[in-house]
Every structure is written in C-alpha cells, then in structure tokens.
Specification:
Elements lengths: L73 H20 L2 H9 L7 E5 L4 E5 L3 E2 L3 E5 L2 E8 L2 E4 L2 E4 L1 E8 L5 H15 L10 E4 L3 E5 L2 E11 L8 E13 L2 E13 L11 H7 L6
Antiparallel strand pairs: 1-2, 3-5, 4-5, 5-8, 6-7, 8-13, 9-11, 10-11, 11-12, 12-13
Helix pairs in contact: 1-2
C-alpha cells in the first residue's frame, strides 16, 4: 500500500478540491484433597463455608472416624476460575472495553490492542504504529486515528503494509451504499502508483454483520495493479464496515497488502483485515 506522503494517501491529506469536498459532515478451591476433616489451613480454605460434619453415634469401646458429607463445589470452582481469567484478560488487554469484549463482545486476538473513538471501538495488531490526526481521506471525508502496519521506503517514496482507521459520517445513504462507495474509493487510492496508474478494483456484495444491537454492512475490495514497479504491492484487500451509530454512520476501514512489494517488511497475515473488522463494537 502506498505511503501517506504520496498523492494517493497523503499524511495530512491535500486540501480538498470542490469535487473532493466533504460529502458527509461529522465524523471470579475446593477443600484440599486428602485433608478432609483436618483443621483449616490458611491459604487452603475453599471459596465458601465448609459443609457441616455429620458424626454418627458410637457404641462404648468402639470408635470410627467421622464421615464427611460434602456438597459439590464444582460449579463454584468453575465460576471463580472464570472470573480470575476474565479479570486477567482485562488487565492485559486494555481496560473496560477489553473486559466487555471478553464477556459478551467481539472476538479480539490476544496480541491486539484496542482503539477507542466516541462512535466505535475496535482493535489492531499490537505491532502497528498508532496514528494521530488525519490518517486517510476518502470521498472528501477525513478518517482519523487507528494504526499503520510496518512501512518502508522505496524509490524515495513511503509505503505501508496496511492500515486501519475510522470516521463518522452523516449521510442519507444506507450502510450498504456507504460501505460500497468507500471500499471502491479506498481500493483505488491505496493502490494507485506514484506514476498515477490506477488498479483494477473488484468489489464484493455487501454482507451483514451484527455489531451489538445494531446491524452493519461490510464490503470488501480487492485491488490489483496493472504492472509491478517493485515498490507498490501488486494486490491488496480493503474492507469497509458501515454501521448505524449515535450521530450518523460509523465507518471502519481495514486494509492490508496481500502480494508484491519488497521482501521486507513481510506481508501481514492474511486474516488481518477480517480480524480487525471482527473486533468492531459500538461504545457501551
């Protein structure tokens, strides 16, 4: 994917021309085995009161050890272990949003970190570089924040192996139309060479996805360049999620090179685009 400082994706973006003017303003132990009946040992007590002992009557001159009647603590043990695991994930993965995702939200890969916006939360690979300010422009809309995959310089121009960014738009178009339009536009601009040669872009049919209580739409564009200049990837995937959100329609763009470019840095894993889109959630 071409770098942000080149015509097809400037870091701060060129001033929009009249035709490029913004179309959509706004953006939780059981008892220790073998020690039943012994005095409780600090640190080995179960997570709840021990059941009472029932000692049967004994005849004179005879003695028998007490028989312990224990309740089953399996359910309590499992619940406690689950709580501990979830809390550990929350501490490692980025706070309340990660905890909510672990409990009932989207699937987040272990090595991903969260990105939060007022209108959408998602996650990106941990080794991607966080972005500030305008990350990309499409159809006159400034997409902000997110992260970039490892990049490189070739022929004096900067490139990157992928990106993820988002925006909030206010538009009369339905999510499917918005996802298709932005997937097509980014699929073209991300893979236009420094010489101005545009790629062939194949756009998928919209598919619906459930984002919490809302229904969103994902459209994917596969871009193929007409020639191999040794710098720009010759093929890439760009997926756009459009989902109704407070204040408009939230858009999430996930892109990754899939073929071509230099030997280093390596292409990102093929599942990256789907993984990023799959982490999307509306703010709680």
């Amino acid at each position: 994917m071409h770098g942000p400082d080149e015509p097809r994706r400037p870091a701060e973006g060129p001033e929009p021309t009249p035709s490029d003017a913004p179309q959509y303003p706004g953006q939780r132990y059981p008892a220790v085995p073998g020690r039943e009946g012994e005095p409780e040992i600090p640190g080995e007590q179960p997570w709840g009161p021990l059941p009472p002992f029932d000692i049967p009557p004994q005849s004179a001159g005879s003695w028998a050890p007490p028989v312990e009647q224990r309740e089953q603590h399996t359910g309590r043990w499992i619940a406690g272990l689950t709580a501990v695991i979830v809390l550990a994930l929350a501490a490692i993965g980025g706070g309340a949003w990660f905890l909510g995702a672990a409990l009932s939200g989207p699937t987040v890969p272990a090595d991903y970190r969260p990105v939060e916006t007022p209108y959408l939360t998602y996650a990106v690979p941990g080794d991607w570089t966080p972005l500030g300010g305008v990350a990309a422009r499409g159809l006159g809309v400034a997409f902000t924040g997110g992260a970039d995959a490892p990049g490189y310089v070739c022929g004096g121009a900067p490139y990157k192996r992928g990106t993820a960014t988002s925006a909030l738009v206010q538009a009369p178009d339905d999510p499917a139309t918005l996802a298709r339009r932005f997937a097509t536009d980014f699929g073209r601009s991300f893979y236009t060479s420094t010489a101005g040669q545009g790629p062939r872009v194949a756009v998928s049919e919209p598919r619906t996805v459930e984002i919490g209580d809302a229904t969103g739409v994902v459209v994917e564009a596969v871009s193929t360049t007409p020639t191999d200049d040794g710098c720009l990837a010759t093929e890439g995937r760009t997926a756009v999620l459009a989902v109704p959100a407070a204040g408009g329609t939230a858009l999430l763009v996930a892109n990754a090179d899939t073929r071509g470019g230099p030997a280093s840095p390596l292409l990102v894993p093929p599942s990256t685009v789907d993984d990023i889109i799959g982490t999307a959630a509306l703010p709680r």
